[in-house]
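Hey, I was hoping to borrow your eyes for a little while. I've dropped the whole record in just underneath, so have a look:

——
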Amino acid sequence: MPSHRILLMRHPETRENMAGVLSGRIDVDLTPRGEEQMRRAIKAVVAWRPDRIWCSPLSRCRSIAEEAAYTLGVPCEVHQNLAEINFGSVQGLHMDEVHRMGYDFPWPLDEKGHSVAAPGAESFEDLIARAKTVLDDLAPLEGRTACISHGGMSRAILGAVFGTPLSTFWHVTLPNVSSQVLTYGDGHFSLAALALAPEEVARRAADPSLIGIDTTQNISGSEDR
């Protein structure tokens, strides 16, 4: 049985998201829709009732984490490893500018399958290594943890769990304030839910029967059943 459940939520919509800008580690403003999403996200995290909340140091994540933690009376910890990918020399630039400089994102791969990041930027290999560090920190914990992070880091965490190739790990649609639910037990992480809207997180928290049971987990392959 899982001993730990992790809610991994992406931050609300920002002006840079909508403008096609690689904001990365820059603190940016939410759109009006992002402000409304933030309120929905806080309600969802509170309904999920985590034992602890972790978040990226960037304000678009901390705004959710700190308000939910205050409401619940649980610890809120800023974790640098939950920050978004560092875009280095192209951080803060529109994708049109990035292309004019001769770079692309998602980072292309070379003939050996290594990601080719812009100067000073974090490679996909380093991003996934950082995600593995987050998973290592989460593994010993019990109960429930909510992690408020970013689209890039969320994809990297999923990629680290499943060993997804660099060529495809980014190909996961994760809307703003959508949540993934991971479980940890018996020495491994499993994905229990993907891209849940805040209201769906709250519904499942209120009615655990909506989560269901994976009956294949008891299949041993032996005759002793």
